[in-house]
Amino acid sequence: MYHHVKKLMFTVRVDEPDPQFGNMLLEQFGGANGELAAAMQYSIQGINCEDPDRKDLLMDIGTEELSHLEVVGTLARMHLKPSKFDRQAAEADPLIAIAGGGGVNLFNSQGNAWTADYLKITGELDVDLRSNIAAEARAKIVYERLINFTDDAGTRDALQFLMTREITHMKAFSLALESMAKPAFSIGRIAPTPGLVDQFFNDSTGTGDHGEIDTRGPWNEGGEWVFTESPAIQAGEHGPASAIVTESSPPVEEAGLGELLIDELRDILHAEKQLTKALPKMAEAARFDQLRELFELHLAETEAQIERIDECFRMLGKSPRAKSCKGMMGLVEEGQEIMTQGEDKEDAAADLALIGAAQRVEHYEIAGYTTARNLASQLRHSAIVSLLSKSLAEEENADQLLNQVARSLMSVAKMPAAVERAE
């Protein structure tokens, strides 16, 4: 139930009417980003909303937008008033002067009639809230431009008030969306195609007439992104679009493969958890700084790998329960013996033995991740393949770094003998 109070939310004052500026103001009266569009959008969303808390928010702001419509309408009418009597002002805008009698109507600044096509209403609350945030941002920009085109103090004050309220509403809608605790990219109820959802297609290539180049940024690299050169010009075995990750039908699980994948993941999970306990000891036992830093780096990577395995289980709808990994337990015990024996060895020799134990662990993990990734690939779990591939790449890189450190240590170990021969 609405009730009109005969008082403006903000008192409007115009010192020098400007009919042409009054026409500009109609953009916020009957335009796409204007107050009527906002009032109708939020109020209808509110009528459709089944969430009582956010329905109240939508109805509150929708009603306030109606009060803003009256402020803008009054402001525009005061600027357009000369069009009623001044021939020159009337000639400048016959639509306003002749058809509208020098007053406001539901047109935008170009004379286009207001339309319900301006409204963004989907019936999905989180989607509608995002639309509302964008609507407030667009309206803020329109008010900012209007302020830049008038020197009338009273008009600028009114527009500043209205512009500020757009930010207020933006904050309210943003916090309402955040309070729903829904992941930012979880839209609707049907999940996107795994793998494909993280592919960025480089579909605009080359150097343009004005020096435009291909660029990389957080919108196409890092995180889960897979940067893919334009499928339209790639020549693959199955045609130019073969680089696109897609599935034409739901994956059909081959007999037993699903259980094998779960077992392998549980085996790797237990192995990684054992490794998080062993790596700090290996780092402490290392004599050379480079090796110690490498173990510390791999500890951080291992912790991230455990998170990825947990994510794999969530995607598969299984609990991330570790399965006792006897192979890794044996390798960890062997490493403990090597650390104990290393206490009586020279620095380089002790660290070389430690590297040998670490590499056996790496080879075990590389084999495990390779097996799991291949199983996931056969089952067409593209997102899981992507997660396991990242961990596999880290393990292979760690193995290469261990090789580099080992070569450095062997050089150090040979130096005393070389010096002796020289003497």
* Helix-and-strand structural type: mainly alpha
Largest sheet: 2 strands, parallel
Using only CA atoms, what is the Rg? 34 Å
Distance between the termini: 103 Å
CATH architecture of the largest domain: Up-down Bundle
By DSSP (H or I, 4+ residues per run), the number of helices equals 13
Helix content: 55-70%
Strand order of the largest sheet: 1-2
Write down the overall geometry.
Answer: elongated
* Strand residue percentage: under 5%
Q: What is the H-and-E element order? A: HHHHHHHHEEHHHHH
Domain module count: 2
Q: Could you list the spans in which at least 5 consecutive residues all have pLDDT below 50?
A: 415-423
> Number of DSSP strands?
2
CATH superfamily of the largest domain: Ferritin, core subunit, four-helix bundle
What is the overall pLDDT average?
A: 85
CATH topology of the largest domain: Ferritin
Q: Which class of the largest domain in CATH terms?
A: Mainly Alpha
Binding site for Mn(2+): 35, 65, 68, 136, 169
Protein name: Mn-containing catalase
GO molecular function, one term: metal ion binding
Binding site for Ca(2+): 56, 60
Secondary-structure map:
Layout (H helix, E strand, L loop, with lengths): L18 H7 L1 H4 L4 H14 L3 H29 L6 H6 L1 H6 L25 H24 L4 H27 L19 E4 L23 E4 L27 H29 L3 H28 L9 H16 L5 H32 L3 H41 L1
Parallel strand pairs: 1-2
Protein name: Mn-containing catalase
Family: Belongs to the manganese catalase family.
GO molecular function: metal ion binding
